[in-house]
Specification:
The structure is a single chain. This protein has 16 helices and 2 strands. It has about 325 residues and is mostly helical. The protein has a domain at about 255-330. A two-stranded antiparallel sheet has the order 1-2. A hairpin with a 2-residue loop joins strand 1 and strand 2. The longest helix is centred in the N-terminal third of the chain and has 20 residues, at about 20-40. It is globular, with a radius of gyration of 23 Å. The N and C termini lie far apart (about 55 Å). The structure holds iron/sulfur cluster (SF4). Iron/sulfur cluster (SF4) binds near residues 168, 213, 230 and 232.
């Protein structure tokens, strides 16, 4: 059992570290003071940012780093400052504007969420966790993050950065489990400050510490505000029990899907299917504009076999990210 002032027992692993000596208030103060001094100035953290802006950022940040999200987020909010603006557009335009953020089904889901917000919530992002959770594309983490960062709600937010920091500081482990365990979720809840406003800052601060200092591959412990209290450092920085899985990309169907999507985004006219899946000689002319032609050249430059390109295209059609019409393949209307 934990009191408000003590560090809870860690999830099973090495012994509790010196964080226990610091106590919860000391841990909260160290991390939030560091955050106040070192946090990045991100537009979705601006108090003037709308709940919709926060929601868009949470969708984009799910699997894409901040640096790549920033320009797309700005363009998106400028073009569609309210959910109703996006809802009035075609899904194809959402996918086009998603650009190279990757995992473009998120664009379809964000569009579907905008439609639902417009039709069922009067055009305003709902503040309640359960209403958020009911929106397309909003899972438990995203609902909690929007509730906390857009509405200052008290929710436990547990993303990969937070899980890694708490695994190291409290549990003395190099990395958290591959997927969130009940023990980790409980620990995150026990570490939360009781004060609501401080709890919001704490969530942001731990997330930022994981993103900037306590990174997965090369933590900068010498710059860390809790280095003297970190169980993993005290244990001699032991290696992880399991090697982290690298993200494969080159030669994968995902890479080929991305290259096909780049061709479809680059032009407004349908692209004949054989241009995408067959042995096209790009130099002889395809009737496509220069940008689409460049993207087609890049697709063929991957050297992916025809059956892999066909499989990737079939997947895009099945996912609703592309449609097959009389003139060929295009983004959805
Ligand atoms: S001391 Fe190092 S391992 Fe511990 S929380 Fe800080 S950066 Fe992470």
């Amino acid at each position: 059992m934990t009191t408000a002032d003590t560090i809870p027992d860690p999830v099973p692993g090495p012994r509790p570290g010196p964080a226990a000596d610091l106590g919860l208030p000391g841990l909260h103060r160290s991390v939030t003071d560091w955050f106040d001094a070192a946090a990045r100035d991100l537009p979705w953290r601006d108090p003037r940012c709308s709940p919709w802006g926060v929601m868009v950022s949470e969708f984009m940040l799910q699997q894409t780093p901040v640096a790549r999200v920033l320009p797309v987020w700005r363009a998106w909010l400028q073009r569609w400052p309210r959910p109703a603006d996006l809802a009035a557009e075609s899904t194809g335009e959402a996918v086009r504007a998603w650009g190279r953020l990757g995992y473009p089904r998120r664009a379809l889901r964000l569009h579907a969420a905008a439609v639902e917000i417009t039709e069922r919530h009067g055009g305003r992002v709902p503040a309640g966790h359960d209403e958020l959770l009911a929106l397309p594309g909003v899972g438990a983490y995203t609902a909690a993050a929007i509730a906390v960062f857009a509405f200052g709600d008290r929710q436990v937010v547990v993303d990969t950065n937070i899980r890694r920091v708490q695994a190291r500081v409290v549990s003395g482990r190099a990395l958290p489990s591959r997927s969130l365990t009940a023990a980790e979720a409980r620990l995150a809840e026990e570490l939360m400050p009781e004060d609501d406003a401080l709890a919001v800052r704490w969530n942001k601060a731990v997330m930022e510490l994981g993103a900037l200092v306590c990174t997965a591959r090369s933590p900068r412990c010498e710059q860390c505000p809790v280095r003297h209290a970190c169980a993993w450092v005290a244990a001699g920085r032991p290696e992880p029990a399991e090697a982290p899985r690298g993200q494969s990309w080159h030669g994968t169907d995902r890479q080929v899907r991305g290259a096909i999507m780049a061709v479809l985004r680059a032009g407004h006219d349908p692209v004949p299917g054989p241009h995408l899946t067959g042995p096209v000689d790009v130099a002889t002319g395809t009737g496509l504009g220069p940008e689409a032609l460049r993207a087609l050249d890049a697709l063929h430059g991957l050297g992916a076999p025809e059956d892999q390109r066909r499989r990737a295209l079939d997947g895009l059609l099945q996912d609703g990210l592309a449609v097959h019409g009389p003139g060929g393949i295009s983004l959805p209307g």
